[in-house]
TrEMBL record:
InterPro entries assigned: Asp23
Taxonomic lineage from the root: Bacteria, Bacillati, Actinomycetota, Actinomycetes, Pseudonocardiales
Organism: Pseudonocardia ailaonensis
Pfam families hit by this protein: Asp23 (PF03780)
Protein's recorded name: Asp23/Gls24 family envelope stress response protein
Annotated family: Belongs to the asp23 family.
Length: 130
């Protein structure tokens, strides 16, 4: 007979939830959550990466995250589709990042600075649109 997860009892020696320890989430993970969330919003684009004038692929949004005890400060750089409503797209990006960081990591966003580093027309068939 198997028990449902709610019916499984912890052994008597198991510490209370408050005494089990803490979960630390590395700032790199928080950065990746923010970048992925921004990349999923319609109207954001990947930008071309070039080294010495040679095309070396694409890069998505770039974020820098500073984490505190329960809040984060995020600085985000991204490229948007043109023509498109920039304010609405940036508002959607802000909302998505705040929701994903709260849902996945339990952090609230204290500040979120967005820099739109480029506006590009609709990409060719081979490029990805987000």
């Amino acid at each position: 007979m198997t028990l449902a997860p709610a019916e499984v009892a912890l052994p008597g020696w198991a510490p209370d939830a408050d005494e089990r320890g803490v979960l630390d989430i590395a700032p790199t993970v928080l950065r990746k959550i923010a970048e992925y969330a921004a990349d999923q919003v319609p109207g954001t684009l990947h930008r071309e990466r070039r080294v010495a004038g040679v095309d070396v692929g694409e890069a998505g949004p770039r974020a820098r995250v500073a984490a505190g005890a329960d809040a984060v400060d995020v600085r985000l750089e991204l490229t948007l589709l043109y023509p498109a409503p920039v304010r609405e797209t940036v508002a959607a990006v802000r909302s998505r990042i705040a929701d994903d960081l709260a849902r996945l990591a339990g952090y609230r966003v204290r500040s979120l600075a967005v820099t739109v580093s480029g506006l590009r027309g609709a990409p060719a068939e081979t490029a990805r649109i987000r």
